[in-house]
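Sample entry (133 residues):
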Amino acid sequence: PGTLSRCRETPNFSAPWARGRKLAALPAACYPDRMARLVGFLLCAGALAAAVALVPVRGRTVLERWRAARGPADFVSRSWQEAAAAAGLSGPQAGKPPARAARQDGRRAEPTERHTAADRAEIERIVSERAGK
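Predicted structure, serialized as tokens:
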């Protein structure tokens, strides 16, 4: 008992865990190093997913940027432009006008919208109508 047959693939005795069963399966293999690797990989993937979903970069998360993009190509191009602008490798975007310079005398700029008396009266009517409900 305990010696291998000439074939060296099948033992010539029945193992203690296989007694009483004709076609017993081998016990489940346990690979602790592979399991530790798998758990580490899953933890890293979970941390990366949490960072993508929760950590804002310049005001928005990566997940919000993905949802705002029209597709993968748009997402990549926007991300590349934003990274280049953050690194100082590119100037301001062509589609956006440059920011207005502050006035020289330090006063605030006049508002560009002009409301007439009829506009104000209409707003007052709507507000009083809603407040009365």
